[in-house]
């Protein structure tokens, strides 16, 4: 599973349209995060997302040269390019619906590539694969889906058990900006913002994605309420589906101490997938060693 890039959305908001929530609340279903329609629309929703992280992770996997473990593999956005590069990879995903989509993709791939991919359902806090790896990846903000410090420590310690001595762990998520969080909290709680438009993968109908955000500064959490509104080509609303997504944002030195507490040595912290140095309000791309 993968989380939406929340913090960088404020700039996009300047050019987005606004819609009162009650105008699209009709015919609304609710689904769980990364389940049902949320999983079905995932690839279409993220089709235009910056792919620079894919090239970064493929390069890291190629440099590793042995089987890679990816946690939160979702529908295979990172998994499949790594396999296409000739690397064996094990993908673990908690959402059965996301995993079903990934398996369907793998089933249609040439066997020489499909045979490099092993997929398993599991929670990063307690999965047990009975083997160890030289490289573990947690891409695309998956780690911030862990909502408590205890879950974060459980996951890191479990990952540590699945790593060989000297193995690398790479994690990325956004660097929180309190100024933007405060601005979102004041400006975005009553209106929805149009975040994306794409075609429904099954029906071909236009889908609009509207979002609101609620920031809890005490708990360091963000809850996004996302409405997927499917329309016909005359603009009539056919269906509206609501999904709630929650993440817990993590500050730089908080993550540094989490890693060290769980037995890792921080090797470097990048600020972007071009391996440029870390700078505030960009990306946190952690490379840690067992």
Describe this structure in words.
With 290 residues, this protein is α/β, with parallel strands linked by helices. It has two domains: 9-46 and 177-248, no CATH class; 52-175 and 250-289, Rossmann fold (3-Layer(aba) Sandwich). 28% of the residues lie in helices and 33% in strands. The chain is built from ten helices and 13 strands. It has helices spanning 9-13, 36-40, 42-45, 52-64, 79-84, 96-107, 111-114, 149-161, 178-187, 252-261, and strands at 18-20, 28-31, 68-71, 89-93, 117-121, 133-138, 163-174, 191-199, 206-216, 221-231, 237-248, 265-270, 283-289. The strands form two sheets. It has a seven-stranded mixed β-sheet, with helices on both faces. A hairpin with a 5-residue loop joins strand 10 (221-231) and strand 11. Residues 1-28 have low confidence and may be disordered.
Describe this structure in a few short sentences:
The protein is of the alpha/beta class and 290 residues long. The chain has ten helices and 13 strands. It folds into two domains: 9-46 and 177-248, no CATH class; 52-175 and 250-289, Vaccinia Virus protein VP39 (Rossmann fold), CATH 3.40.50.150.
Strand arrangement within the widest β-sheet reads 5-4-3-6-7-13-12
Number of DSSP strand runs: 13
- Count of DSSP helices? 10
Provide the CATH superfamily of the largest domain.
Vaccinia Virus protein VP39
Number of domains: 2
Kindly name the structural category. alpha/beta
Kindly state the percentage of residues in helix.
25-40%
| CATH overall fold name of the largest domain | Rossmann fold
Order of helices and strands: HEEHHHEHEHHEEHEHEEEEHEE
Low-confidence runs (pLDDT<50, min 5 residues)?
A: 1-28
Largest sheet: 7 strands, mixed
**CATH class descriptor name of the largest domain:** Alpha Beta
